[in-house]
Design brief:
Elements lengths: L22 E5 L4 E5 L5 E5 L3 E6 L1 H4 L11 E4 L6 E6 L5 E6 L13
Antiparallel strand pairs: 1-4, 2-5, 3-4, 6-7
Length: about 110
C-alpha cells in the first residue's frame, strides 16, 4: 500500500498538500457501469470501456490523505470469460485466462 510521508513541522500548512496527485488510466474488457471513490473527490472521463480518473485538486486542496484511496469500478458483465495472449521480444507467448467458476455449495443446511 502506498504511503505518503510529510515532515510533521510543515504538515499543517495547506500549501504542503498541493503536491498530492493521483491520476489513473483504466481499460476494462467489458463496458464500465460506474466508478466510485467514497472517501475522496475525483474527476472522471469515460467511454464504454476506458476511463481516466484523477483526484479533484480543487476540492482536495489543503486536505490530507488520512484514509486509503479506494476506487471501485462496476462492470456491465464482470463474469464473462476472457482470454489475453501476449508475445515478448524473444517470441515467447503468455496466456491469461479469466473466468468465473460457478461451484455448487458443498454443504446444504436444512432447517
Amino acid at each position: 500500500m502506498p504511503t505518503i510521508a510529510v515532515d510533521t513541522k510543515s504538515a499543517n500548512t495547506a500549501s504542503q498538500q498541493d503536491f498530492l496527485s493521483i491520476e489513473l488510466a483504466v481499460e476494462m474488457a467489458t463496458p464500465i457501469k460506474a466508478i466510485v471513490c467514497l472517501l475522496h473527490p475525483i474527476l472522471i472521463k469515460t467511454t464504454a470501456t476506458k476511463a481516466t480518473v484523477q483526484l479533484n485538486k480543487e476540492k482536495f486542496k489543503g486536505a490530507s490523505l488520512e484514509s486509503s484511496f479506494i476506487l471501485a469500478i462496476e462492470l456491465e458483465d464482470p463474469h464473462s470469460p476472457r482470454m489475453w495472449i501476449e508475445k515478448d521480444q524473444s517470441g515467447h507467448h503468455a496466456l491469461m485466462v479469466k473466468f468465473f467458476a460457478f461451484l455448487p455449495s458443498m454443504y446444504i443446511i436444512k432447517s
